[in-house]
Write a structure and sequence with these properties.
Blueprint: H1 2-6, E1 22-27, H2 32-42, E2 50-58, E3 61-68, H3 71-78, E4 87-93, E5 108-109, E6 115-123, H4 126-135, H5 145-160, H6 164-174, E7 177-185, E8 188-197, E9 202-205, E10 210-213, E11 225-228, E12 233-237, E13 244-247, E14 258-259, H7 264-268, H8 275-291, E15 295-296, E16 301-302, H9 305-309, H10 311-315, E17 319-324, H11 326-343, E18 347-351, H12 352-355, E19 366-372, H13 378-389, E20 393-398, H14 404-408, E21 411-414, H15 427-447, H16 452-463, H17 465-473, H18 476-484, E22 491-496, H19 500-515, E23 518-523, E24 541-545, H20 551-563, E25 568-573, H21 578-582, E26 585-589, H22 597-615
Parallel strand pairs: 17-18, 17-19, 19-20, 20-21, 22-23, 22-24, 24-25, 25-26
Antiparallel strand pairs: 1-4, 1-10, 2-3, 2-4, 5-6, 6-7, 7-8, 8-12, 9-10, 9-11, 11-14, 12-13, 15-16
Helix pairs in contact: 4-5, 5-6, 8-15, 8-17, 11-15, 11-19, 15-16, 17-22, 18-22, 19-22
Bound molecules: 6-O-phosphono-alpha-D-glucopyranose.
6-O-phosphono-alpha-D-glucopyranose binds near residues 325, 327, 377 and 630.
């Protein structure tokens, strides 16, 4: 139940920032509810677990409706109720702070019910602000940071007898963190105040009416004139009046409205043709978000609250057993190497589906690590149950807050990469690896099995990893061009050693999943025990051959392949000349410490799988026969 507990309390070093909540607002002459509910539906692609709306129909008359579940569930709650209003704000919530529940859903209201606010982002200093407000007599009903912000605005406004805009400006000056917000006042239906910092917010300009949303998708059917708010800007929306945009110091900001030409599908995918490619490109930001509040670059340290709170349990573990499925299992293989290398504690990695049925030897001194993007995989859940029945402590690594696995584990860390829509896992994989890295580093510090120089330099390199990932992504065009050559390939072999072996497996899995080309991943040295018999001009071989102590051995493998007429795609370290000159195609990745290699070498393989599948005209985001969340055996 650790995840379940954790999300109700403030854990400073677990702050998370990325958040795909959806905001919609409307003020004008139409009925707001139909615009808002349609808007929420258009934002469903962002992923969410609850939804809510606040409608202001006349001074003193505000209705707030909320529901856990889908937008359709909210509609059921609203059915038959009074929805007449021309001003309203609505929200879909992807829980990061407080479990998915009606009380934690947005909009949140001030204690007296006067102000309602929706928020996307995180207020990092909310615990301090909450305490200050509690001392003034404010009572809170949810465990969210958002409720603190709306109460803070109310407090500032009431104390100073200020107008709402000034109160919002002063409140936001007190806030550390990220936000896109929209606020309405029960006593004044004629205005919506919206603001952003680090989370997106778009104002749509209609005919005497305004739309507001996290992206332009909810408004394209009404207008193509939009203003993308910049960080630190506040929009004051009044029906029939020119939109006013100011900063926190009330200085006017000038903005030309832009005309959007994209259709809804393109907008939802951030302008990319598929979710998968968007998610591949999102990875630098996702990994930065995953590390935010955990990795401190100034002090060169990493703190995972799970390790802090259960230090004794982890430090005294006689063994770790990682259970997972699919891509998460590949992340587990990397986790094994990281934990064994840095913490000197033995680690086994098991397919959850095998583990659960083979009467494994598990004792109370073992720590089981369950890795799951969705947090719902049936086999992984069953493996956790089994581990518990043998007295083991279970630590979870999940993306979905409040998911079944998050609730079933004793401790855990969320990866915080935002919802992954493409069925083939990309950003969730690198997020899992990033969490495993932070886990191994924090634990190694506790076990004293890492030198302070290595710890510091690895933390510094991890801090720089988003930029390294950006450098890899710059090769997208080259990889796309190269991938065309493999459109009609029927088989592929992927080879790697050490940290690169799981990447070979993951690269092969990506290709299988979305291009339906048969691909196998092998430890490079195993090639001579079978796969070498397959090598010919029709068997492309992808070799992960970055600089490592085993480089020369991988070089020999490449020579063996070339000697048999094979075609080689090599992923090499920038500046490499030896393997690059032998390979038919080489993709350069920046030099990083070997233990971080997976975070850069996985990207070209994701891109390659993506482009080959596109060339084959396949449905990249929804490959045949596969499911994003496998809740059955
Ligand atoms: C499915 C998905 C994979 C995922 C696997 C495990 O097969 O298509 O992308 O790796 O399940 O899912 P989990 O949610 O437990 O990581």
């Amino acid at each position: 139940m650790f995840f379940g507990m954790k999300i109700f309390i403030f854990v400073p070093n677990e702050n998370k920032y990325i958040n795909m909540c959806g905001i919609v607002g409307y003020i004008g002459k139409r009925q707001a509810w139909p615009v808002l509910v349609e808007g929420l539906r258009k934002l469903e692609y962002r992923g969410y677990d609850s939804a809510g709306v606040a409608l202001v129909s006349a001074p003193g008359d505000m209705k707030v409706y909320k529901s856990v579940g889908k937008v359709a569930d909210l509609e059921r709650v609203v059915a038959g109720k009074d929805t007449s209003a021309s001003t309203g704000i609505a929200h879909t919530r992807w829980a990061t702070h407080g479990e998915p529940s009606t009380v934690n859903s947005h909009p949140h209201t001030s204690m007296d019910g006067r102000l309602a606010l929706v928020h996307n982002g995180i207020i990092e200093n909310y615990a301090i602000l909450k305490q200050k407000l509690a001392d003034k007599g404010y009572v809170f009903s949810s465990s969210t940071d958002t409720e603190v912000l709306v109460q803070l605005i109310d407090y500032i406004q009431t104390e100073g007898s200020l107008d709402l805009l000034t109160a919002v400006q002063l409140a936001l000056k007190e806030v550390i963190g990220a936000y896109a917000i929209a606020v309405v006042d029960r006593d004044n239906p004629d205005v919506i105040i919206a603001a952003r910092k680090s989370s997106p917010l778009v104002v749509g300009i209609g005919d005497d009416e305004y739309f507001l949303a996290s992206d332009a998708t909810p408004m394209v059917e009404y207008t193509n004139k939009v203003i993308y708010l910049s960080d630190g800007e506040i929009a004051v929306l009044r029906s029939g009046e020119q939109v006013r945009i100011v900063n926190l110091d009330n200085v006017e900001c000038s903005h030309e409205a832009q005309t959007i030409a994209m259709n809804i599908g393109q907008l939802q995918k951030g302008g990319y043709p598929h979710f998968m490619i968007k998610e591949i490109f999102d990875q630098p930001e996702c990994i930065a978000d995953c590390m935010r509040g955990r990795l401190n670059a100034d002090t060169c340290s990493v703190v995972l609250s799970a390790v802090n709170e259960h230090r004794e349990r982890f430090v005294s573990a006689s063994r770790f057993v990682i259970v997972a499925c699919g891509t998460s299992w590949h992340a587990g293989l990397i986790g094994k190497q990281l934990i064994e290398t840095m913490c000197r504690i033995p680690v086994e990695v098991e397919y959850a589906s095998e583990f659960r049925y083979r009467n494994p030897v598990i004792s109370p001194s073992d720590v089981v690590i369950a890795i799951s993007q969705s947090g719902e995989t049936a086999d992984t859940l069953a493996a956790i149950e089994l581990a518990h029945s043998r007295g083991a402590f279970v630590y979870g690594i999940c993306n979905v807050v409040g998911s079944s696995i998050a609730r079933a584990t004793d401790a855990g860390s969320y990866i915080h990469v935002g919802p992954e829509i493409g069925v083939a896992s990309t950003k969730a994989f690198t997020g899992q690896v990033a969490v495993l890295l932070m886990f191994a580093l924090s634990l190694a510090k506790e076990t004293g099995t890492i030198s302070s120089e290595e710890y510091t330099s690895t933390v510094a390199s991890l801090d720089a990893i988003p930029d390294k990932m950006r450098q890899v992504l710059k090769q997208n065009d080259y990889i796309a061009g190269m991938s065309r050559m493999f459109t009609y390939a029927r088989n592929f072999i992927y080879l790697g050693r050490g940290y690169s072996f799981p990447i070979a497996l993951e690269g092969a899995l990506k290709l299988k999943e979305i291009s339906y080309i048969h691909a196998e991943g092998y430890p490079a040295a195993e090639m001579k025990h079978g796969p070498i018999a397959l090598i010919d001009a029709d068997m492309p071989v992808v070799v992960i051959a970055t600089r490592s102590p085993l480089y020369d051995k991988v070089l020999s493998n490449v020579q063996e392949i070339k000697a048999r007429g094979g075609r080689v795609v090599a992923v090499v370290t920038e500046g490499d000349t030896v393997i690059s000159s032998l390979a038919d195609f080489s993709i350069q990745v920046p030099a990083v410490p070997e233990c971080l290699d997976a975070l850069v070498t996985s990207i070209p393989l994701q891109l390659m799988a993506y482009h080959i599948a596109v060339c084959r005209g396949l449905d990249v985001d929804r490959p045949r026969n596969l499911a994003k969340s496998v809740t059955v055996e």
